[in-house]
Amino acid sequence: MSTVEEESDTVTVETVNSVTLTQDTDGNLILHCPQNEADEVDSEDSTEPPHKRLCLSEDDQSLDDNTPCISVVAVPISENDQSFEVTMTATTEVAEDEINEGTVTQIQILQNEQLDEISPMGNEEVSAVSQAWFTTKEDKDSLTNKGHKWKQGMWSKEEIDILMSNIERYLKARGIKDATEIIFEMSKDERKDFYRTIAWGLNRPLFAVYRRVLRMYDDRNHVGKYTPEEIEKLKELRIKHGNDWATIGAALGRSASSVKDRCRLMKDTCNTGKWTEKEEKRLAEVVHELTSTEPGDIVTQGVSWAAVAERVGTRSEKQCRSKWLNYLNWKQSGGTEWTKEDEINLILRIAELEVSDENDINWDLLAEGWSSVRSPQWLRSKWWTIKRQIANHKDVSFPVLIKGLKQLHENQKNNPGHQLSENKSGSGLPNTNSSSGVQHVQIRVARLEENAGNAPSPMAALQIPVQITHVSSTDSPAATVDSETITLNSGTLQTFEILPSFHLQPTGTPGTYLLQTSSSQGLPLTLTTSPTMTLTAAAAPASPEQIIVHALSPEHLLNTSDNVTVQCHTPSVIIRTVAAEDISSSVTQAELTVDSDIQSADLTDPPDTLETNTFPDDIHQSKLRDEEQSAYNEDDASELMDGVMVRTTEEISDASLKQEEDSHSDLPSTYVTEDLGSPTIEEQVDQPTIDDETVLIVPSSHGFIQTTDDIDSESVLPLTTLTDPILQHHGDGSHIIGSSLGSPDSEDSKDVEDLVSCH
DNA sequence: GAGTAAGGTAAGGGTAATCTTACTCC
DNA sequence: CGGAGTAAGATTACCCTTACCTTACT
């Protein structure tokens, strides 16, 4: 898949026919190369075993520009063991057909006695970009003319990982403990090739790598906010040393760039706070003057803010820029107010771009002709605000983020009656009494990516994309809402994405994961797999008092090839609530059994050992995400809300709920009720329903039924047919609880509210 | 001494996050 | 009137690129 450009004569290439792939908790694929195979390629008689590194190769041809880039980190298992582990991470989009057709047909082991002299990255493509210092325009033009492109902008986590890994390897190879020794203490000669070496696998100019490394290891960087004392001292030093930032920084214990940046904000003549009309007028005049534009013209680029600030006199360049781009430019040109519809439009437009990386968005283009957009920069900041509605937006892929936001806002659009503002007054949560203090937690099974034809391993069995949101039905739902997106790469054979939800972490018990919130909300949910999937909610002190579990619509799943869901693969689904004090001795509060005819995947199947030409999806996540997004685009948003809903609640005090309680006097501790705002159609045991969702409410005096209650099967809700479209699609499922949710959209809308308010 | 690679500095545009302020609602 | 909540505006620490300079090596 990628090869080494500079193969020296000392390099020999052997092909290994099979390796074992596993996956670590980060979703990285670990390739285990058996020692015997490694030995086979060890043809040299040298007393010291040759270094080996791994090379994924599509064929014998050299790389071209379209070659997908996979970062490979090869780590020897031990000094004496010729086995090694390789971590691979896909870094660019890979066409899935390439994957499925097995274009990666060989894994080559290269051996070289001076491996690190060739590449620390093993198989990384040697980017001409990363090996060029180029800071001059000529250098850039030269590379551009040769068809090279390189990454700019903020470093991604993947890039930093690669960089750190490279540095680590460099240090290890030379027995150096601390990178700062090299960076700050060694002479140029001593650290020869350091930057070139660690730049492998990074499509950034060497200079960018150099700057990044300096920042990373400079302990005078990231010191934080300047204290008033520091500011005073900085002023003195500035007078004394002028623009000698290195000296000032040294005296202040700050990096040169830090003091330089801070000084940019400090102008004796600078005002702070609200701009006066006079200042605004002056700023506008200066901007138009310096850009040779007329009042009313949109000016967002080509402004020398230092020059503007100089002329404005009372504000710094940053202040001028911010004021202009975020307000004045728009005001001057007669822009319109930004509305909620604009927000939805923004998400839709971004989604339409179908970019896999946020950096690929052309904000200038996006902002063009959009009267309520104040500037491309402002639009981007607006996007940032929207994005932050998802708590862990940083942890998810861009397509997934878009997908979640799109769904969220589409639902809002479709269900304006469930806006947060209405929630606030209680109308958005008709099933709960706003005075009850009841909190809701929603868990939505979102979507699953499956590598077709392969059964999951036990550890990979639970690949349940879930979306969890907390909603308080108190007056301030937003305050308690948390939501985030999970991406799970469980096992080697399946990849899936999870919409905004909680972190799912392995617990150490095979097949058991712990769902954790990123906030202090304390909602540990334990998911266990086979043969029955169990969702266990442990009631932490701050835990919510309602749990709602959704299963995806069957259409959503079955319209895709990766229709593996809990419902599809397990004979039953049990949803339990447990008291916080004893989560381990989980007590069934409600059991929802969902028979499924679908046995497309056996959760207990042992893990497969992959052939080298079998590429796991994980490597191609970006592609899958693209697919996922496109699949999503085809879905009706409401479909996502179809499915099973189980809810437990401590206090169900609203009238409608009480009504239902009355109607279910035969189920003293179990209530079947309508979904939020939806009429309820209760189903008797074993009665099929034709509803999209089933709701089960289990009251508990503590939000969760005490573990000591030890509810057995008798106390489990009576069976009824669950009319889950998923199940219907797969034949008739027998279900325990049935309750109609006449308006899935309304629930959908609530999800949206939850998400919107989660930040 | 010239050429070149590597390292370095300063300027300034930009981003992401927090802080502050103004406003609204009760 | 005042407190709480919220959104918008302001601020700022840090990031990144560009242009140009310096140093060391061949």
3D structure, described in words:
The chain is of the alpha+beta class. It has four domains: 12-118, no CATH class; 137-217, no CATH class; 228-265, Arc Repressor Mutant, subunit A; 416-756, no CATH class. Strands 12-13-14-15-17-18 form a six-stranded mixed β-sheet, with no helix packed on it. Strands 2-3-6-5 form a four-stranded antiparallel β-sheet. β10 (485-488) and β11 form a beta hairpin. α15 (340-353) runs antiparallel to α18 (398-414) and α18 (398-414) packs parallel to α24. The longest helix has 18 residues, at 157-174. Mean pLDDT is 49; it is low at 1-125 and 416-759. The chain binds a DNA duplex (26 and 26 nucleotides) through residues 133, 135-137, 140, 152-155, 187-189, 192, 195-196, 205-208, 210-212, 214-215, 221-226, 243, 245-246, 256-258, 260-262, 264-265, 272-275, 303-306, 317-319, 321-323, 326-327, 377, 380-381, 384, 388, 476, 478-479.
